[in-house]
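Dear support,

I submitted the protein below through the web form. The confirmation email said the job was done, but the results page showed an empty box. After a refresh the structure appeared. I'm attaching both so you can tell me whether what I see now is the final result or a partial one.
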Amino acid sequence: MAIKKSGGLGRGLGSILPDIADLEPVAKKGSSAVSMVEVGLIDPNPFQPRKEFSDSELEELAQSIKQQGVITPVTLRHMPDGRYQLVAGERRLRASKRAGLKEIPAYVRTATDIQMMEMALVENIQRSDLNAIEVAQAYRQLIEECRLTHDQLSERVGKDRSTISNYLRLLGLPAESQEALATGRISMAHARVLAGVEDMERHMEILKAIEERHLSVHQTEEMAKQAKPTPKAAPKRRGDLPSMHSAAQSRLKDRLQSTVEIKRTQRGKGTLTISFNSDSDFERIIKLIEN
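What the results page shows now:
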């Protein structure tokens, strides 16, 4: 099978992770040449975040490869022992094995463990068939393992920072809710509402209602609102300052531009504490008081 040289790195991956354009191609330094690599020499990516692959989809892809070959090359990492480690293209590699291919087109590059992990995670995030929990887990792994800030991650995956935050919140859901979301029994919009219900008993009650009664997101929101207890006025604690003393404390804070604390007993005795940060600040406060 003739393979044309290509200037890309696979659809979307080069634009999402510009750093990989700087990784040195092993086959031909300074180029993006495609090499034919024996399938038997390729080891799986130890940083592959995706564990489940649809058997029917792999079979469909294998049949397509038998007819048309591998259209988009996989990306490999060259190892010191002469073997290769898969960076991106797990489904293509598995389907190629099913199709009986002995060789597969690949971009062969050098990469660090961190670059390996980042490329594998970002490629998987861009897949449309990932469920929300898988995406959230990939985001968290990128942040923790690749030491990315939320802003850096936003740039890497081309998503708004708020979108990333919404996904990460899903990982705080109870296991039952995460499983319901991962299997499609509830939507991400439902899950976002559930994330705001902290009372576990009520949370599970709403989750059950969504599944059994097929609640809309709006209905779920209304049910979640009912779950929130009516805020009660905090009881007046013993030792709370009378309004006269509280007002005086506020005036002194404004006048002295410093922390002021008044403590008063039930019998009317108390202390007045004025904080200062340095000797010069102390002199400033004293002058204000004297004046």
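Response: this is the final, complete result; the empty box was a page-load delay. The longest helix spans residues 55-68.
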